[in-house]
Specification:
One of its GO terms (molecular function) is galactarate dehydratase activity. This protein is an alpha/beta fold and 382 residues long. It is built from 14 helices and 15 strands. Strands 4, 5, 6, 7, 8, 9, 10, 11, 12 and 13 form a 10-stranded mixed sheet that branches.
């Protein structure tokens, strides 16, 4: 029985500009251009009685208009449905577009709806999403990434370290994978010295190294006592990660580039990583993330989800083993709420659902939108 069916949805695409262009190892090797903006796909779902849920997905560089087009096309499948039946609705949405794949862009578009349905379910229960899922903790250790890009000059990087520690973050992650390995070690040494044991330290190579370079660099970095080395190798080199993890003491982290549970399963069954890093939007939503988390839990992996702390704080708080959340302030202007930091941790707020509402600024950055209802799809109301 559907007591309160989905009546209307708004789907929109917004471009979030970054304060300055960002480069990691993928840019230094010429594979990608510096990142200047992030495409945000929003889904706002409303039921007949007026209950609401909001979800989002994103793309860095190409893909935003494709996400929007796919969401606009499959969205009508949800009208008249019971928003509580998230598993069934995920399957329905994915199979509506299965011809173009059950992972990748199509499921990243579905993710926005899936996340909105989870937000709605938690709001209906009047619980933060972490509590709805069965929280393991009320606050999650968090680390800063956005101050440590390869494009950041060392002096600025060191200032960011101080600022992050003062703001209450519990860790600092810096990018490595500079064409000159000595430059990586020089920056790492300077940052480790500046941190002086106050907070945790991690590095992220963004798939820059081959197997030999990864082993050499990982060994050189062992004395720094890193919490993890992230993406030392190509994201699909499951065996290479496993061999590296065997050879060194520093834990290995990876998974942000993987687009579904099937790929994460390979990472898990090959024993490639110590920290698994799924991204709820990239793997197809919270429903899919929970599948990855369930597998990771049985393998006793630690969890450090990628990006989008607004979603991942809840998912990391619900995970039973050790977890971290990545602090990125990039999405701040899109939402009216801010995450609270305390003693190196990000605190799950009392607000129900994800605990976020879209800001006026997000509306202003919207470049395309449509309203989907029983009467069909109407474009252009943003
Ligand atoms: Mg990363």
């Amino acid at each position: 029985m559907t007591r309160d069916p989905i009546a209307e949805m708004k789907v929109s695409l917004a471009w979030l500009p970054l304060a300055q262009p960002i480069s990691d190892a993928k840019v230094f090797t010429g594979r990608q251009r510096p990142l200047t903006q992030v495409a945000m796909l929003f889904a706002e779902i409303r039921t007949e009685s007026g209950r609401e849920g909001i979800g989002f997905s994103y793309s860095k560089r190409a893909g935003g208009p494709g996400l929007y087009a796919h969401a606009r096309e499959v969205g009508p499948e949800l009208i008249g449905e019971d928003p509580n039946d998230i598993e069934r609705l995920w399957t329905k949405l994915v199979w509506a577009g299965a011809s173009v794949g059950r992972s990748g862009l199509s499921t990243q578009a579905v993710a926005a709806f899936d996340i909105a349905l989870w937000d709605m379910k938690a709001r209906r229960a009047d619980l933060p999403l972490a509590k709805l899922l069965g929280a393991s903790r009320d606050a999650v250790p968090c680390y800063n990434t956005s101050g440590g890009f390869l494009s950041t000059p060392l002096e600025e990087l060191l200032e960011n370290v101080d600022r992050s520690v003062a703001a209450g973050l519990g860790g600092i992650k810096i990018k490595v994978g500079h064409p000159d390995a000595r430059e990586d070690l020089r920056r790492l040494e300077a940052v480790a010295k500046r941190i002086d044991g106050r907070v945790a330290l991690m590095v992220d190579a963004n798939q820059q190294w081959d197997r030999a370079a990864a082993l050499r660099m990982a060994r050189a970095m062992e004395p720094f006592g890193l919490v993890w080395i992230e993406e030392p190798l190509d994201a699909y080199d499951y065996e290479g990660h496993a061999a590296l993890a065997q050879a060194i003491d520093t834990p290995i982290a990876s998974g942000e580039m993987l687009v579904g549970p099937a790929e994460h399963f390979e990472l898990i069954r090959n024993r490639s990583v110590d920290f698994i890093q799924p991204d709820a939007a990239r793997v197809g939503g919270i429903t899919q993330f929970l599948r990855v988390a369930a597998m990771a839990r049985e393998s006793h992996l630690s969890l450090a989800p990628h990006f989008a702390m607004e979603i991942h704080l809840h998912l990391a708080a619900a995970y039973p083993h050790a977890s971290w959340v990545e602090h990125f302030d990039w999405l701040d202007p899109l939402f009216n709420e801010r995450q609270q930091l305390r003693d190196g941790r990000m605190v799950v707020s009392d607000r129900p659902g994800l605990g976020v509402t879209l800001s006026e600024q997000a509306r202003q950055w919207t470049v395309a939108s449509c309203v989907i209802s029983r009467s069909g799809v109407v474009d252009g109301f943003h």
